[in-house]
Amino acid sequence: MNDILSLAADNLLSPIILSFVLGLAAALGRSDLMVPEAAAKAMSIYLLFAIGFKGGASVADHGLDAKLALAILAGVILSFGLPFIAFAMLRVMTGLSRTDAAAVAAHYGSISIVTFVTATSVLGGRGIEAEGYMVAVAAAMEAPAILSALWIMARGGSGKMEPGLLREILLNGSIVLLVGSFFIGGLTGAEGLAKIESFIVSPFQGVLCLFLLDMGLVAGRGLRGARSAGLGIGAIGFGVAMPVVGSLAGLALGMLIGLSTGGVALMMVLSASASYIAVPAAMRVALPEANPSVYLTLSLGVTFPFNLVVGIPLYVAVAQMMAGG
Amino acid sequence: MNDILSLAADNLLSPIILSFVLGLAAALGRSDLMVPEAAAKAMSIYLLFAIGFKGGASVADHGLDAKLALAILAGVILSFGLPFIAFAMLRVMTGLSRTDAAAVAAHYGSISIVTFVTATSVLGGRGIEAEGYMVAVAAAMEAPAILSALWIMARGGSGKMEPGLLREILLNGSIVLLVGSFFIGGLTGAEGLAKIESFIVSPFQGVLCLFLLDMGLVAGRGLRGARSAGLGIGAIGFGVAMPVVGSLAGLALGMLIGLSTGGVALMMVLSASASYIAVPAAMRVALPEANPSVYLTLSLGVTFPFNLVVGIPLYVAVAQMMAGG
Amino acid sequence: MNDILSLAADNLLSPIILSFVLGLAAALGRSDLMVPEAAAKAMSIYLLFAIGFKGGASVADHGLDAKLALAILAGVILSFGLPFIAFAMLRVMTGLSRTDAAAVAAHYGSISIVTFVTATSVLGGRGIEAEGYMVAVAAAMEAPAILSALWIMARGGSGKMEPGLLREILLNGSIVLLVGSFFIGGLTGAEGLAKIESFIVSPFQGVLCLFLLDMGLVAGRGLRGARSAGLGIGAIGFGVAMPVVGSLAGLALGMLIGLSTGGVALMMVLSASASYIAVPAAMRVALPEANPSVYLTLSLGVTFPFNLVVGIPLYVAVAQMMAGG
Amino acid sequence: MQTHTAKRVEIVIEAPLERRLTDALVKAGVTGFTILPVLGGSGRSGQWSREGQIGRASGMVAVICLIRPERLDDLLASAFEVVERHIGVVSITDCKVLRAERF
Amino acid sequence: MQTHTAKRVEIVIEAPLERRLTDALVKAGVTGFTILPVLGGSGRSGQWSREGQIGRASGMVAVICLIRPERLDDLLASAFEVVERHIGVVSITDCKVLRAERF
Amino acid sequence: MQTHTAKRVEIVIEAPLERRLTDALVKAGVTGFTILPVLGGSGRSGQWSREGQIGRASGMVAVICLIRPERLDDLLASAFEVVERHIGVVSITDCKVLRAERF
Ligand SMILES: Nc1ncnc2c1ncn2[C@@H]1O[C@H](COP(=O)(O)O)[C@@H](O)[C@H]1O
Ligand SMILES: Nc1ncnc2c1ncn2[C@@H]1O[C@H](COP(=O)(O)O)[C@@H](O)[C@H]1O
Ligand SMILES: Nc1ncnc2c1ncn2[C@@H]1O[C@H](COP(=O)(O)O)[C@@H](O)[C@H]1O
Ligand code: NA
Ligand code: NA
Ligand code: NA
Fold it and tell me: Helices B233-256 and B261-272, interaxial angle, to 10°?
């Protein structure tokens, strides 16, 4: 316990988390500080490319682990399964409509790549190794949750699968970039990494700071919108409880297939995190009646900061206790 | 004197200044070279974050200097006071209306953070140390000048303080980012700096080059607009004389409170520089009758290039003569 | 021959080319992956600035070569001359109208700076030196081809030289930036380079990866448009044959004036590459009746990928065979 | 200058629907339109702004169609099918155009 | 397709005033509007363009409101109060809208 | 609120022509206009979108002019000279403006 607290304190005092807090504070204080949309997108492209590439290069380095397929399968199962848990919890804890609950559930089955990236950064800082292919697991977890949500709605008679939507989801930019750069890293290996190391490794943490500054701004605006979205205490409670529940599911499957300590921690982080890019866009097409401010506020305004500040150090500490290291 | 000239020549031949000159020449030659607005804003966020963070980390390193409060107080006094000097000079030297003169005056009490950043770069290149908290002084000097200008107008019966404007000015993006990253740097110290050094230290000068290229483009377009703004020789003269006057005020207060050579030089630079981001935006709200092309042309088209090319080496040399080093 | 193949395979497995292939695949698969326009422009400014600066610094380092003027003259001759060859080939190989053929021809006399940058990267990776002033040759080759195309049209009675167009072409952003940063690099030399090395040298290859990712996306969309542009097999054939023809012309002149192996390779690359920024914009003004999808598809969708994947290793190998090294 | 009567239809719609709308327009034979970016707005579903957007989830775009009056109903019908379940607005203005052969 | 008469008001105003304008609109009960970015322009105070802008000092935005005809005067009155001392223009066009219940 | 009759002219034109168009407008005495960015579009020369643009070759912009009715013909004549050989569209709408002295 003491350990967890000191880890958390450590985490809190990193430039990364403090940058997020700065953004949050600026937005809550209604400062006009803003990061241009194009710059935020460019940074997210950089982060996806770097994390994918490094994952691939690490796989090339360590040889292909037999557990890769298992880990991906576990990820897909989690992404499919978690929305059902989330939906049930939402129906019990909140007064959200069936549609809103299904839309929110989809977000929690899917993942937040920035939470994942931050966690790898924290692991790196503590010298804990993780399987390079966890980025492939991340990519595999993005989409299945959307299908679960649509299936929940279809049982209720609405939420049609628009033609082309499935292809759109599977070929969505962040999946393609993550998987693509993973392959590039895998193909070019250590030699390729050496060529672009001073671009994708050295400045990585710094870019992450500025990106989290922007995420703080966005989350802060989301929180300010939380009142107008009329989210009750039940919904906020869900936004904090669900990541913990998810992380336990991730912990179980991660240990079951025997991932390393770092791998288990990342599996927990992936399960705990909620999407705020791919899934919202898909929901606007597939479930337009669902209220975007409900799911964006929960995912970005509640769960994302919770994971960043409390969750990650907690999951890492738990993974260390359970898986050793 | 010889020394000043050689310093100036040295300064002129740095990639930073030459990049600015390139932008200036391209704009005057009506090339279509342009830096996207989003990229320029992203670079200014980077520069503010880096300079604030490094300042904070340096304070964490050297311990909190008792002079910090004094230096900030001196900055606030300069920012409040310089607009009155500027206003008086403008009424004597130019035919500008009371409103235009007050608006211009506000710009010269406030500061240009890019001029400040360039000066720290020049100091760094010469191995002259400065107090890390000078970035806090810079932040403190942004806003007071606006109040002085409004007070000048209020005496004349116009220029009302719009509700919300004060909060807007104090929480303006660049102040929040500068102060925020100063705190982050102060809290995470040398350890935090080590983590993101290869992002905020190594590429800093290069980013500054590209940013000054854009500033050159903007200033060049401003100069081209100078004719249409109908600025006479008196106004241009003010744009050159005022920074020198300001720098002397900065020199006096900097020496009075016993800053280091580098600190005195930066105090001179802050006093000499004129705002072209925060103050123009505030003036559009508070003094809409003032002509923006007058104050933008003077600040960006005359004083900014003057400080960059002539002023900074001059102020540094004077600071060295007066404060030793 | 074996050598060429192994070089080509080597080239194919670099992160740079694979990033391009990823973008191409994403676009052909209709993924919504996209790089913001502002980020793409910012990256191209970075690349131009870096390549120009490094060229200038290298000239400052090695002293001014007497061949500089000859090399520029050769470039201008190639840029003027190649459009006539291209026009003749187009009239024979394709059914394009006179106007479309002239517009396409202009693109092939001019150059693609990204192809050039990639080639310098490949040369650097193989340890082959090239004259620093080749970037000046690149700049000199941008514009003359446009005049040739207008002259071809003028003989046919159309294609008027709009007032101001010539100035616009010569002062176009990429020429100004390339030449300007070449001068800055030349003036500040090794010392200037040292100051900004960790910005313009170390991360260069990584930025190039992301830029080529975007180029792949653009080229892929261009290829998808190829069908609707109704380009026949003849036109596609031209898009592959013309760069080879151009490279041979470049080879001849490069050897004639006695450039180094790297210099000959770059002269081949410049001659082989086709413009897709400066010339298309000029054509919209000067030859608005020409169909943009024809020339953009050929230049970006056919010739650019061909040069990147097949051309560059081929030209480098040939240059090595002919000029030694 | 010779001008011709036409209708100007302006549709403000969520960005993720853009392709669906333009596909529907093309299917209805409307091949001329212009798409403008939108910075922010306000409506029954609240106020939003592009700063504060990660991804394109809740951004919007404005699609402008100039069309011959007799083809207006087809356009509205096919646009409405896409817009119907979504937030956004449609407005129609009388206008004149040059070069009628283009519409 | 059933359409309803409405007014389309287009206000081009300096960016630093944007929030003040939308606040005034909301206070006047106008909760529907769309904000478009502006690249540049020209008027009595000269020509300007977004390239050449550091900060948002002299940039502009276009605010578009669709509104029931009977509420036009309220809107104009409240907008005018903000626009009055500033550069910028206001234009009003007759239009039709779908889904009248939204306005 | 006192309003005045005017015309709203909207010209969608290729970006490389922008300066030529505004120069022509200024020469014809039209000194008021606003330029909006365009994300993409479709017309007789096919569909295009800003993603997929390197350089500004085939991007477009929208130029909006509010003008007194009696000056419309001058404006159209001078605009048409630039637009004539190029892709793009011109539309004209009746409108009202505030502050007539500005036009
Ligand atoms: N009356 C209106 N005038 C102009 N734009 C509107 C209006 N109502 C809604 N919009 C636009 O349509 C979007 C969605 O509106 P709504 O469906 O009412 O939430 C808003 O964010 C605005 O951009
Ligand atoms: N007649 C007009 N038509 C369209 N936009 C205009 C007109 N006059 C002014 N504007 C816009 O309003 C801004 C300020 O105009 P002004 O107040 O006349 O300087 C200009 O930069 C244009 O963007
Ligand atoms: N009917 C139309 N309505 C709105 N915009 C159009 C229309 N036709 C063409 N445009 C715009 O003008 C551009 C060029 O059109 P075109 O000259 O027909 O290829 C298109 O890309 C659109 O942005
Ligand atoms: Na999850
Ligand atoms: Na000052
Ligand atoms: Na060529």
Answer: 150
HSE-up of residue F76 (Cα within 13 Å, Cβ side) = 21
Residues 6+ apart with CB under 8 A from B69: none
Give pLDDT, residue A232: 85
**D23/D18 Cα distance (integer angstroms):** 9
**Ligand found nearest the CA of C299:** 6
Residue A34 lies in a domain: no
Q: Is B34 a domain residue?
A: no
Phi, psi of C146 (to 5 degrees): -65, -40
Domain range enclosing A303? 2-29+40-225+232-323
Q: Does C172 touch chain F (CB under 8 A)?
A: no
C31 close to A (CB below 8 A) = yes
Q: Which of C230, C299, C273, C276 is nearest to C118 (CA)?
A: C273
For D32, name the nearest residue in chain F, comparing CA atoms only: F43
Domains of chain E: 4-41+55-102 (3.30.70.120)
Distance CA F102, CA F53 (A): 37
Query: What is the number of alpha carbons within 13 Å of residue A129 lying toward its C-beta?
Result: 7
The CATH number that applies at residue C103 is: 1.20.1530.20
DSSP-derived 3-state class of residue E50? coil
Indicate the residue of B15, B38, B198 with minimum beta-carbon distance to C188.
Answer: B15
Distances A313 to A268, A308, B184, B307, C63 between C-alpha atoms, Å: 11, 8, 19, 48, 57
In chain A, which residues have pLDDT < 50? Answer: none
CB F2 within 8 A of CB F87: no
Interface size, chain E vs chain F, as Cβ–Cβ contacts under 8 Å: 68
Return phi, psi of residue E14, to 5°: -65, 140
How many domains are there within chain B? Answer: 1
Nearest residue of C to residue B26 by CA position? Answer: C176
Q: Distances in Å between the alpha carbon of B162 and those of B169, B275, B284, E19?
A: 11, 20, 11, 13
Measured in Å, residue D92 CA sits from the centre of ligand 3 at 17
Which residues have C-beta within 8 Å of that of residue B189, sequence separation ≥ 6?
Answer: B57, B60, B61
d(CA D68, CA D63): 16
Written as tens digits, the pLDDT of chain F (103 aa) is 789 999 999 999 998 889 899 999 999 999 899 999 999 999 887 778 766 554 445 689 999 999 999 999 999 999 999 998 888 899 999 999 998 777 7
Count Cβ atoms below 10 Å from residue E3 Cβ, excluding itself.
16
**Residue count of chain E:** 103
Q: What is the pTM of this model?
A: 0.94
Query: Which residues, in sequence order, are CB contacts of F86 under 8 Å at separation 6+?
Result: C284, C288, F13, F14, F17
**Chain position carrying tokens 């069936």:** A98
Q: Is the CB of D12 under 6 A from ligand 1?
A: yes
Chain F residues whose beta carbon lies within 8 Å of the beta carbon of residue D26? 42
Distance of alpha carbon C245 from alpha carbon C239, whole angstroms: 11
Name, in order, each residue with C-beta under 8 angstroms of C163's C-beta and a sequence gap of 6 or more.
none
Is the residue at A278 inside a domain?
Answer: yes
Q: What is the pLDDT of chain E when averaged over all its residues?
A: 88
* Partner E, chain B 292-321, Cβ-Cβ below 8 Å: 292-293, 296, 300
Q: Is D60 in the pocket of ligand 1 (CB under 6 A)?
A: yes
B198 and A207 within 8 Å at the Cβ level: the answer is no
Q: Is it the case that residue B225 has pLDDT exceeding 70?
A: no
Residue B160 near chain E (CB below 8 Å): no
> For residue F84, what are its two tokens?
């004539």
Strand runs (DSSP E) across chain D, as ranges? 4-14, 33-37, 40-43, 46-49, 60-67, 88-97
Angle (CA) A17 B50 C194, round 5°: 130
Looking from the CA of residue D60, the nearest atom of ligand 1 is 23
